[in-house]
Write a structure and sequence with these properties.
It is built from 15 helices and 10 strands. It is an alpha+beta fold.
Length: 485
């Protein structure tokens, strides 16, 4: 039994050995079959590449279990020896020297340069290609650091408060003007033909309303009545739209005011100046108003004579003051003392005192006016102000009917002559200079006219006349004769 097994093993071994040798012969015959089609001049391979390929092929065969095969390298043969006779064609290229031709200074002039220049070029290229990163400065979050914005918050709150107050104050002043007009509309239309004349009523049919001069000033012009050219109603209200003015009003309280100015006709009143006002307002008007300062004297004890407590009197002629301060006006002054600020009647009204200018040769233009100033009630009750407009209409008729006596007219004319003489004295130098300048211009025009004439006889006569005129201007010297002793 053992003998049979041994023989069988020997037979299998022989069969495997024969098969292996046959496979090796076939591999050796077909190994270089692929190189038979190439010419010897075109096939060039390096020793390192061939050795690496053979080593890789042997490793694959060992992994597959095939026996090792002798390669041309094992036999000491190199494929490079096939072309060993031609050294120029069998060149093994080195990868490191593949781009050496770029270093040729003759082929690429000005490209390579020195090593330092190459480093600078590489550094500049790196800087160009390198992206620049900028870090944004991000502020701290508002929610975690809200106390850093307290100044901005205060400014924003102040702006919001200012604009809110502007809208509210503007609306409040506009509503007050509309309320006054609606309350006094019927009384104005009964006494004036045209109420609210703004130049558009006849052409465009505009509705009756105030003219808005500013956010706190509203005006209304009325005309079409005997004894006057027209009446201007002016509402000067608190600047409710201005928050700063409201804060200043806390320190110095102010009130809404109504000013009515009536321009009297030339023949509607005599020549006199009269004013009754509160004591503080009378002192202020005496210093500021031109006509009151030049024609009137300040009387602070008007309450003793005319029974007007709290008021002062500025009067030019006593009989005019007594006539105007009748029982009706005195009763109105006592009843509405908290509303009536002043009543000013003048035929020489020229506004506030202007700074004296010596070059001024003409007196300021004057008007005949009835000017009244009233305060609005604290509760802004427009019905309470209706008697004040009735008082203005009464004073217009009272002034129209009043006439001065002969003594009063003489005194009035004397006062106006005095004021005119003072003005002439103050402007004498300016007037003399202006007269001399006019004479010089006239003489120059006459000379040009004579020189333009070609007649020599006329020119001679004019020169002789001019010489005599200059001789007359020269001062004459007195001659004194001394007798000999």
């Amino acid at each position: 039994m053992r003998l049979h097994v041994t023989l069988l093993a020997v037979a299998v071994s022989c069969l495997l050995a024969q098969t292996t040798w046959a496979a090796a012969d076939n591999f050796e015959d077909n190994d270089f079959a692929e190189f038979e089609d190439f010419d010897d001049d075109e096939f060039v391979v390096g020793n390192a590449a061939g050795g690496a390929a053979n080593q890789h092929q042997q490793q694959q065969q060992q992994q597959e279990g095939a026996p090792a095969v002798n390669t041309p390298e094992d036999d000491g043969n190199d494929f490079a020896e096939i072309d060993g006779n031609d050294e120029d064609e069998a060149v093994v290229e080195d990868e490191e020297n593949e781009f050496e031709h770029f270093q040729d200074e003759e082929e690429f002039e000005g490209f390579a340069g020195t090593a330092a220049e190459q480093d600078e070029i590489k550094l500049s290229d790196a800087k160009k290609t390198e992206p620049k990163l900028t870090m944004a400065k991000v502020p701290m979050h508002f929610r975690t650091h809200w106390d850093s914005y307290w100044m901005e918050m205060l400014m924003l709150a102040g702006l919001l408060a200012y604009f809110a107050n502007y809208l509210f104050g503007n609306k409040k002043n506009s509503s007050l003007a509309s309320l006054w007009l609606s309350t006094h509309k019927s009384l104005l239309e009964d006494n004036f033909v045209l109420v609210g004349d703004d130049g558009k009523k006849e052409t465009e049919g505009s509705t009756l309303s105030f003219i808005k001069e500013s956010e706190s000033v509203y005006t209304l012009w009325c005309s079409g009545r005997t004894c006057c050219e027209g009446m201007l109603v002016e509402l000067k209200m608190i600047k409710r739209q201005d928050l700063v003015s409201l804060i200043a009003g806390i320190m110095k309280p102010v009130q809404d005011q109504l000013h009515i100015k009536v321009e009297m006709s030339q023949d509607a009143m005599d020549n006199f100046v009269f004013c009754v006002a509160t004591r503080k307002q009378a002192a202020k008007m005496f210093k500021e108003m031109n006509d009151l300062n030049k024609f009137c004297t300040l009387v602070n004890k008007a309450d003793e004579k005319y029974n007007c407590p709290g008021y002062s009197l500025l009067s030019e002629i006593a009989e005019a003051s007594s006539s105007l301060l009748d029982s009706r006006l005195v009763a109105a002054l006592n009843k509405f003392s908290h509303l009536i600020e002043y009543i000013h009647v003048s035929d020489q009204y020229s506004g506030p005192i202007q700074q004296e200018d010596p070059n001024t040769l003409k007196q300021p233009e004057v008007k005949r006016i009835l000017h009244c100033g009233f305060n609005m009630p604290a509760k802004l009750d427009m019905e309470e102000m209706k008697p004040l407009l009735v008082l203005v209409l009464y004073l217009m008729e009272r002034v129209r009917r009043f006439r001065l006596s002969k003594e009063g007219k003489a005194k009035s004319d004397k006062n106006r002559a005095r004021v005119e003489e003072e003005f002439m004295k103050n402007t004498h130098a300016a007037r003399a200079e202006a007269a001399a300048q006019r004479r010089e211009e006239k003489r120059k025009a006459e000379k040009e006219k004579v020189l333009a004439n070609e007649d020599p006889e006329k020119q001679r006569r004019w020169e002789e006349k001019e010489r005599k005129r200059l001789e007359k201007k020269r001062p004459k010297m007195k001659q004194l004769s001394i007798k000999a002793l």
